[in-house]
Structures are given as C-alpha cells and as structure tokens.
Design goal:
Mean pLDDT of chain B: 84
Strand order of the largest sheet of chain B: 7-8-6-5-9-10
Largest sheet of chain B: 6 strands, mixed
Number of strands of chain B: 27
Number of helices of chain A: 4
Largest sheet of chain A: 6 strands, mixed
Structural class of chain B: alpha/beta
CATH class of the largest domain in chain B: Alpha Beta
Oligomer: heterodimer
Shape of chain A: globular
Chain lengths: ~180, ~650
C-alpha cells in the first residue's frame, strides 16, 4: 500500500520553528552568554548554525561557539550491517567546561543517536548542562531521552519515515512524512 | 647510561632567561659556522634518538640535521605508532628502554602532556618537539631568536599578533615568552578568535601586565575594523588586582603604541573553523599594513606553511622574514643541543616548581577532562596530578592538570579525615587550601560519587523526612505497577540497579514483580564510580546479558542525570539493548542532561542547594528492618557558612 507523502512542515513553518526554539533557548538560559551549540551532522549541524544566526539577529552577542559531532548508525567497514550509532568524528574547537550546551539534531526518534552524543560530550569536559533541541520529535523512544526544545511533535507509525529537508543540504526546507521505501 | 646530565626542555618555561640568552648566543655562533662551512665536533660520540609518534617532517629533519652538524649521531624509528606503541607499550616504558640506546631523546607525540611524562621516566634528557596541542619550545625559541636577530633585543619590543589567537597553543607559548622578556603585545584577533581570558589572567598575575583597547588605522583591514587589545608590562597596581572577566570589551580605551616592531601572522587551521567563522573572515595580511610611519620598520613573521593569510607579494619585501625564520631552525636546535652538553659541567636548579601539586591519597582520583591528555592513555602507572588553577570561580573549584594544563571544575569537595563532603563555593577556598596541604582533599564529580565513596554530606539546618518506610514501600509498588503496565513482555526484562541504593531498589522492584506476575527478572548492579567490575550480577541472575534485552535502570534519586548517562555508557560496553527504561524512587527536578525517567516513585521538588538522601535497609533483611527506610531532605552548605565539622 502506498501512502501519499504528507507535508508536515513547509519552509515557512520550519523557519518559524527555528525562530521559536531560538527564543526559548535565550529565555531559558537568560541570553546566550554561556551557551555553546553542538549540531549532529549533517542536518543538526545546519540547524545549529541557523540557531546561532537567529540568536545573533535577536541581539545576542556574536561568537556563540558552534561545534559538530559526526554520529552514524552504520558501520563503515563496508559490511553495511546496521549497528548502534557511534561517534565518527567531532569538531569542537573550544572547551565545554562550565558551558550550557545545546545539542541540536533534526529528528528525535529512538534516542540512540543522542545517547552516543551525550557519551561523546561527557568525554570532552564538564558542561554545566546539556539541553537537547530537535526540529521533529517523532516519539517511539527506546531510551529515556527527552528533548528540551521541540519544533514539532509528529506521530508517525513505525513503518513510515519522517524526512527533514534543509536548504543547506537538500535545497529546500520541509518536513515530510512518507513511506519507508 | 646517558653521557649527558638530566636536563629536560619540555616547555619554554623550563629555561631561564639567561639560559635562553645563552642558547641564542650559541645559535648566532652556529649560524656563522654553518655559513663558513665549518665542521664541528661538539657532539662527537653522542647519540640522539628521535621518537616521532606523529609525522612532522620539518621539525624532525631540522633536529636530525642539527645533531649531524654538531658531529653527533642520530637513531630513529621510521614510525613509532607502527612499532612499540602498536604493541601496547606505554610511553613511559619506551623512553626508559630507548634511554639505553641513546644519550638524548627528541620526542614528538600526539597527546597533550606526553613530553612531561617522557621526561619524568627517561633517565636521559628529553627535548620536546611538540606534544599534542601543548608546547613546542623549539618553535618558540626560533620565533624569539629571529625577532632578536632582526631587532637586536626583545625587551620593550612591540609585537602585533594577528589571526587565530584563541586555539593555537604555540601562539600562547609565544605570548608568555614575549612577556617574560618584557615585550609589548598588540593582539589583533580574527573575530571570535580572541586571546582567551586565562592567558590574559596569567599575564596579569605573573607579569603584572595591563590591558587596553587601541584603535590603529593600519590594523583595521586585519581585524575587520575591531579595536586591538594592547598588552603592556609594569601595570599600575590596581590593574594587577583584577578578578573576573577580562577581554576586548572589558579593557579601558588606551593610547596606541608609537610604533610596531613586528607582525606575527598565525596560520589558519581549517579544522578550527566552525560556526560562523568562514575562511573569508580570516586575516589576510598584505603590504598595506606596512605602509604607515608606525609600521614601516616592522618585520613580518609566520610559522609556515601558509594558506591565504599571507600575501605572496610580500615575499620579496626585506621585511618579510618568514623564510629566514624557518631557516634558523637548524642553528637554534644545534644551540639547544650544545647548551644541553654544557649542562654537564654545571649544577642546575630545575626551573620547575613542584610545590603546589595536589596529591590525592584515596580514591576516587580525579580524572583529567581533556580526552587527549596523556594521563588518559598511559594507564594505571600514571596517577593524575593537579594544581589549583588561577581562575576565579564562585561555584566550582578549578584544578589544572599538571600534564596537559587543562582546567577541571570540581563541584563537590570532601575532607578525607572527617569524611564529609560539600558543594563547593568560594567560602570554602581557604579550607581547600588547608586540606591540600594536609593531603586530605577529596573531589567528586557528583553527589552519588561522594556518597558511594563513604562520604557524608555536610548539612546545614534541620533535616526533614520526606518519605517514611511505608511511603517508600508504596513507591516501590508503584514503580512495579508502572513497569508492568508499560512493558508487555516482561520475560525479556533485566533490572540494573545503580550501586548502592539503586541495586537494593532493583531487587525490591523485581521481588514485587515476581510476587504479582511470577516473572523473576535477572538483576545486576552497575557500579558507576567504582574501580572494579562495572556490572555485577545480583542474586537470582545466572548470566549477564545486555544484547537485545529490555533493561530497566533503577536508582534512588535522580539529581543531574550524569550518573545515568555513565550507567548507559557502561551498558553499551556490554552490548546493544533493545531498549532502556529508567525508574527512580525520587525525581527531585534538577536534571542537567536530556535524560528523563520513565517511571517515578515520587516527585519531590527541591531547591538546587538542597539534597535528598535515601536510606534503605540492606537486601535480605526482613520486613521489620525495613522500618528504617526513609528519605530525608536537607540543605547543603551555603556561602559564608564555615564547615566547622571539618576542623
């Protein structure tokens, strides 16, 4: 059975979500003074950069540190067997000590990617706190992980997939619910 | 046995100013000797071993060339990573063995602080050719030497540093070294790559430097129109006594220096770029900056290789000295080796201060937070070593790793004799100093770690009971009900309790499930902060199985959530569970990570300064003893309250 792809968020809605999350981050943390944004490659990294830009345009001081974590669920040994997500690389050229870190990803689903990210961040120093911002929370969690900032909650059955598209990567901003294959 | 006396150069700070001057005098002589084509025999009969754990062709060739020019011999391993390190031999063992083959070791290593470790274990002298992002003292010597050669002196010079002044440790070493010689520094950072505050604080504290912002038209094209930060020695007294933040925006406006003697343009390290700093934003130094009366005498330095930050049009300008800077690598390294040979005839006091080192006598030993620190790789023989950091912080105790200098912020401190622990605040600083002297300081990452190490909280004011034994029993029953309602297939469940109260609760929850549904789930205890087996089986469990299981983590109180994060890391080391659920007796509402419990016995809102402590009768005791179960809430020590129990 084929289900017609459903647009859950269009470009304007994606922009509004990012703007709202940026406001929530500033509100909860009393500005961006002690903030660092860490995006999970690829779309989480684009979202982190946009959140930083959004915070700047809201009057926060420029220079909010932005880093990236590269976490993948597939082994790179060519065998192609899906394993649990693990850290492949990171680009965080600043100290996390005492920082309020906002971890940014596009979709929160099982929580396994976030767990791997927390492990990587814990290894990098003693952040004051780590908060999680996601564009889409699609539920179906397998681990006790919860996001602090959510663009949109989408209930999609397990067989379906949620596609986040961002202009930097895909040429267009949208969130689409579609078939598995 | 080495023929040289034990003198290590791990950091530029290991050399006194007269010693650096002596190295420069020798470097001048060797530069002349090389120009004349003299054959030297100063190092006749001596063998230098070059151990390069990461490639650095220029540094290695210039060291080896220097030793050959002095008449000595060189042995080296083509690729250290592929030889002993690959067999798992520690750096400490390798340098002890190589000391039997050579009189001098030159080390290049990817881990921060590795040269310090090598120097401590090798009986022969060790020269640091770069360790991780830490020091590279011969590079700093070359930088200082070329400046001195071009300008005749270092004291009183005004040197402008441009570009990435934040991440490059070699530029920080250069700043400290320039300050030791009394030079003025004009910092012209690319936006977002300012000199870090800890560097400024060290200059103020150790060298009495003061800071002001200056506007210089010729720097505008370099700094994107921003003001530059001017750092000068001999500050008025009130400037030296600052606390708190320092930076471009905090420094008062001042008068620009009358002239600049040198520009030091730093390399753009692409891997450092992130976020909003784009390659196009980086400094691009060209002849324009040298056109004004203030800058026409300035020389231009660069550590090479360059990318786009240094215009090729400068190469033919006599003020561009960067190729000469690279060429003095050999005579400067010859001079350092010759200086080392001279030390054989001298009694030399170590420049390194071993006082102020914090020695921890009992576990848990603090762990350096720098994942590239040599202490994270060298294994058990290397006990982490710290000093009190200079940074002022009200809410945490800043320690500095003695190997990699990375700061670690401690939230909970303990006194090893009274076995009390405290939430750190600045009113405790005096006590902490005293405990360091008595070697009775203990430090903890979390409340749980402190309590599992046998420490009792220092409390203030009355405690109040928030749960009695009946309420705890109700909460355990409630957890079991929540679990049974949520998880359809309990046969696939394993229950892991966090040591020690979580483990007691895990068996209690299991027993309730067993009595109600007749499913006897395997139980295990996770020792998050212990040094032994991380996960061990509790009664009734036959084998530890994680793969494909549904694991319920049980803990008594969830505070920050870091303990649960570590527990998950330990579980993942054993396999990939199908899912993980979190059950806590009490959620007190101060989570610092995006972890949330699935099942909560009771929500008890607390203030951040408050603690919740749970006491449980040990497993196996009958119902009567469970009347001792209780949860209490109390306030931790606050500022201006002295910990009298500690005395």
């Amino acid at each position: 059975m084929s289900i017609k792809p459903l647009v859950a968020l269009d470009a304007a809605a994606v922009t509004r979500s990012i703007k709202r999350i940026a406001h929530e981050i500033a509100e909860r943390n009393g500005g961006a003074q002690n903030l660092a944004l860490i995006g999970i490659i690829r779309r989480g990294a684009s979202l982190a950069a946009r959140l930083a830009a959004e915070l700047h345009s809201n009057g926060e001081k420029p220079g909010i540190p932005v880093g990236t974590l590269d976490i993948s669920s597939y082994r790179d040994d060519g065998k192609g067997t899906p394993g649990d997500p693990r850290l492949l690389g990171r680009d965080i050229p600043f100290s996390l000590d005492g920082k309020r870190v906002v971890l940014v990803d596009d979709v929160l689903y099982t929580g396994r990617t976030v767990r791997a990210a927390l492990e990587a961040l814990a290894d990098l120093g003693r952040a004051e706190s780590i908060q999680l911002a996601v564009l889409v929370d699609r539920g179906e969690r397998e681990l006790p992980i919860r996001a602090d900032y959510v663009g949109k909650n989408i209930e999609a059955p397990r067989g379906q997939r949620v596609y986040v598209r961002l202009a930097e990567v895909d040429g267009i901003d949208s969130v689409i619910i579609g078939n598995g294959k | 046995m080495s023929r040289l006396s034990k003198t290590d150069v791990v950091s530029i700070d290991d050399l006194s100013l007269p010693e650096i001057e002596r190295v420069f005098t020798l470097a001048d002589e060797f530069a002349d000797a090389l120009a004349r084509g003299d054959t030297l025999s100063i190092a006749n009969g001596l063998i230098m071993a070059t151990l390069f754990y990461e490639p650095s062709t220029r540094t290695r060739l210039s060291f080896e060339s220097a030793m050959h020019r002095l008449g000595g011999s060189v042995i080296s391993s083509a690729d250290m990573k592929a030889s002993s390190a690959a067999k798992g031999e520690s750096l400490a063992d390798t340098v002890r063995i190589v000391s039997g083959y050579a009189d001098l070791i030159v080390l290049r290593h990817p881990h921060d602080g590795a040269a310090r470790v090598a120097a401590e274990y090798a009986p022969c002298p060790v020269l640091n050719a770069g360790d991780g992002s830490r020091e590279h003292p011969t590079q700093t010597l070359c930088d200082l030497f070329i400046l001195r050669r071009k300008k005749g002196k270092l004291k009183g010079l005004t040197v402008a540093l441009c570009g990435d002044l934040k991440f490059g440790r070699t530029v920080h070493s250069l700043i400290y070294a320039l300050a030791r010689f009394g030079a003025n520094i004009v910092a012209v950072p690319t936006s977002g790559m300012d000199v870090p505050n800890y560097v400024l604080e060290r200059l103020a504290a150790e060298r009495n430097y003061s800071f002001s912002t200056v506007t210089m038209d010729e720097l505008k094209s370099l700094a994107g129109g921003l003001d530059a930060l001017y750092l000068t020695p001999n500050a008025p007294h009130q400037m030296a006594l600052f606390t708190g933040d320092l930076g471009l925006d905090k420094a008062p406006a001042g008068e620009a220096p009358a002239s600049l003697d040198a520009f030091y343009v730093t390399r753009l390290q692409k891997e450092r770029l992130g976020g909003e700093i784009k390659p196009g934003d980086y400094v691009r130094f060209d002849a324009r900056a040298l056109k004004t009366h203030r800058t026409q005498e300035a020389v231009v330095m660069h550590p090479l290789p360059r990318t786009d930050e240094l215009a090729y049009e400068l190469d033919s300008d006599p003020r561009a000295v960067y190729f000469e800077q690279a060429a003095v690598g050999v005579p400067v390294r010859m001079a350092l080796i010759a200086w080392l040979i001279e030390q054989n005839r001298k009694k030399r006091a170590s420049a390194r201060d071993s006082s102020g080192l914090i020695r921890f006598k009992t576990e848990p030993f603090p762990r350096c937070v720098n994942s590239n620190c040599v202490t994270r790789f060298e294994g058990a023989h290397l006990r982490p070593r710290f000093r009190l950091a200079r940074t002022v912080d009200r809410a945490s105790l800043p320690l500095r790793c003695d190997y990699c200098e990375r700061e670690l912020r401690i939230e909970f401190v303990g006194h090893a004799r009274s076995h009390r622990y405290y939430k750190y605040d600045e009113s405790l600083y005096g006590y902490v100093r005293q405990w360091i002297e008595e070697q009775s300081l203990a430090v903890f990452e979390t409340v749980k770690q402190a309590e599992e190490s046998g420490y009792e909280p220092y409390r203030r004011g009355p405690q109040r009971e928030v749960m009695n034994s009946a309420e705890i029993a109700d909460a355990v029953n409630s957890l079991a009900s929540q679990i049974a309602a949520d998880i359809p297939d309990l046969t696939n469940v394993s229950i892991f309790g966090v040591v020690s109260h979580g483990a007691v609760l895990a068996t209690r929850v299991r027993d309730v499930l067993d009595a109600r549904i007749g499913i006897h789930a395997p139980c295990a205890a996770i020792d998050v902060y212990g040094s032994g087996e991380a996960i061990h089986l509790l009664d009734g469990a036959s084998s530890l199985s994680v793969e494909g299981r549904t694991i319920i983590i049980v803990d008594d109180v969830i505070n920050s959530g870091w303990t649960i994060q570590r527990a998950m890391t330990m579980i993942w080391q054993h396999g990939r569970p199908a899912s993980v659920k979190l059950a806590v007796l009490i959620d007190r509402g101060h989570l610092a990570v995006p972890i949330r419990p699935n099942y909560v016995g009771k929500n008890i809102p607390t203030a951040p300064s408050e603690r919740v402590q749970v006491r449980l009768a040990p497993p196996g005791t009958n119902g009567k003893h469970k009347t001792h179960d209780r949860a209490t809430i109390y306030s931790m020590l606050e500022a201006a309250k002295a910990p009298e129990q500690a005395k």
